[in-house]
Amino acid sequence: MDSPRSPGRPRSSVDAEIFAATLRTVHELGYTRATVDRIASAAGVAKTTIYRRWPSKGELIAACLSDAVGPLPASTGDPREAMATAIRWGAAKIGQPGIGAAFAGVFTDAVSDAALREVLVTQFQDPYRIALQDILGLPEKRVLFIVDVVIGTLLHRMGISGEPMVDDDVDTLIDLLGPLVA
Amino acid sequence: MDSPRSPGRPRSSVDAEIFAATLRTVHELGYTRATVDRIASAAGVAKTTIYRRWPSKGELIAACLSDAVGPLPASTGDPREAMATAIRWGAAKIGQPGIGAAFAGVFTDAVSDAALREVLVTQFQDPYRIALQDILGLPEKRVLFIVDVVIGTLLHRMGISGEPMVDDDVDTLIDLLGPLVA
DNA sequence: CGGTATCGATACCAGCGGTAGCGAAATGTG
DNA sequence: CACATTTCGCTACCGCTGGTATCGATACCG
């Protein structure tokens, strides 16, 4: 199942360093100024190595985010509490250095790039939506709406103010969405 | 008050054509591929003419959006109905061709550009927030939160699906935010 | 050993946002 | 009319960016 065939020199295991350098660079310089050249040199790696592993800057950032955010943690059976936990978890993730900016950047790249948009949907939208559907027991459209509200609100606040949402506003958001799972 | 002094050749009144060409180009090609060169040639104008009127691509798009969206229309005195009207108005505006994509693009440019971010805040955030505060009679922080939820949700849906929100979801959003003005 | 694939390095390309400099065309003023 | 002033379109240019091509060197497998 794992590596049935591998002729030739194996890939050096520097994915973690590349991901770390990506987040660090985006955090320091913002999405646009975090060029692939800079990310590569921050990771101690040649630019060609990055392009051998990911086909574009957008997909590199998406993979980096996927690695950094990880799957939705398991939660209690109570739907309302589960949604509150999920929202708090998402707000904390987006607030981590570099993640919010990277997300906003790759998101807006995706508006003009159908291929990247599909990567985003299959790599983020679908897994979290399915996990939430499982936990909350709601139809797909309703869960998609909740995702739009939560992620959209968090990203908008992050982009405008440069700071993640305060706990107080996250609580307000949770209270607001409560009726949708009742 | 108007043009007290004007030596030299006056500016040709092509702002409207430039704005129209900008929206059209963004709608057809997306924010990134809507280059200033293309916008200029679509408007029948030299690129230098555009840069003589706006200092950057981001500020051109912001001015174009400001012109296209316009001020929040007056509304009834009932806060709840006023908010519903405002949300529906915003959803309709963001759904118009080019506007949603332009907004998402300039928004994410602003994440990496403090100057553009300030233009965005003073040109959009402040006026609509103040108008809403006036109508809804709520404190600034609460109105800012509402703006984050509404604009964030609309832009996220627009960016992911490429289509504006359906009326059904807009109604759900309105119902959701109802408690905040009660 | 040979075959294969990755490595860093370098050079390169097209396209982008933005600027400089040109002569020509409009204006108001004397 | 001449003149100063400003904008016009045009062309050329700059630095940077995402992305590609090519190279010899290196690491693995059989």
From TrEMBL, chains A, B:
Keywords for the protein's UniProt record, in alphabetical order = DNA-binding, Transcription, Transcription regulation
Q: Which residues form the signal peptide?
A: none
Q: Which InterPro entries match?
A: DNA-bd_HTH_TetR-type_CS (IPR023772), Homeodomain-like_sf (IPR009057), HTH-type_TetR-like_transc_reg (IPR050109), HTH_TetR (IPR001647), Tet_transcr_reg_TetR-rel_C_sf (IPR036271), TetR_C (IPR011075)
Q: Which residues form the HTH tetR-type domain?
A: 12-72
Which terms in the Gene Ontology molecular function aspect does this entry carry?
Answer: DNA-binding transcription factor activity; transcription cis-regulatory region binding
Q: Does the keyword S-adenosyl-L-methionine apply?
A: no
Gene3D superfamilies noted in UniProt: Tetracycline Repressor, domain 2
Q: Which residues bind DNA?
A: 35-54
Task: Quote the protein name from its UniProt record.
Answer: TetR family transcriptional regulator
Question: What is the originating organism of this protein?
Answer: Actinophytocola xinjiangensis
